[in-house]
């Protein structure tokens, strides 16, 4: 990514516009044109920086998960799971609606992929074998659990389930 302040600003307003639109609309109803209109950016500028709205969404998820600080200590809680619990607590209705099939087809799979990538890094740092497969299992199960327990699964519940799986 460019260090040019104009590029940084354009990408930031596009990310912000997409996040605001996602609060109001399902993914499938959001277009590049609507993102640009909401951001006050020309479509040609969008395509100078990005290839699709999915690429912009992936960038948002990378930004969101970049502040997860995993521990390599084997007995430490999994930072990725703690982050997931906190994130869902901020937008529980949005998350449950997405898990029930709302919000459009690409949103949840891309979010899950970003979390699996982050947890794979965390498990690899802990020298856990088959890190990618275990990360996919733990993230998928944790997301399903959080969606089923409308009162929100506790951090301890998810950490305990993950610890049992990772033995």
Write the layout of secondary structure elements.
Blueprint: H1 5-24, H2 32-39, H3 43-49, H4 53-65, H5 79-90, H6 92-99, H7 107-125, H8 131-148, H9 155-166
Architecture overview:
With 167 residues, the protein is mostly helical. The chain has 2 domains: 47 residues, Arc Repressor Mutant, subunit A (Orthogonal Bundle); 100 residues, no CATH class. 70% of the residues lie in helices and 0% in strands. It has 9 helices and no strands. Helix 5 runs antiparallel to helix 7, helix 5 packs parallel to helix 8 and helix 7 crosses helix 8. It is globular, with a radius of gyration of 17 Å. The chain starts with a helix and ends with a helix. 25% of the residues are buried.
In whole angstroms, the N-to-C terminal distance is 39 Å
- Structural class of the secondary elements? mainly alpha
Main sheet attributes: strand count, strand direction, barrel closure: none
Number of domains: 2
Strand-residue fraction? under 5%
Shape: globular
Unreliable spans: none
* Share of helical residues: over 70%
> What is the N-to-C order of secondary-structure elements (H for helix, E for strand)?
HHHHHHHHH
Please work out how many helical segments DSSP would assign.
Answer: 9
User: Count the strands?
Assistant: 0
Taking all residues together, what is the mean pLDDT?
A: 89
Rg for CA atoms: 17 Å
Q: In brief, what are we looking at here?
A:
With 167 residues, the chain is an all-alpha fold. It folds into two domains: 5-51, Orthogonal Bundle (Arc Repressor Mutant, subunit A); 67-166, no CATH class.
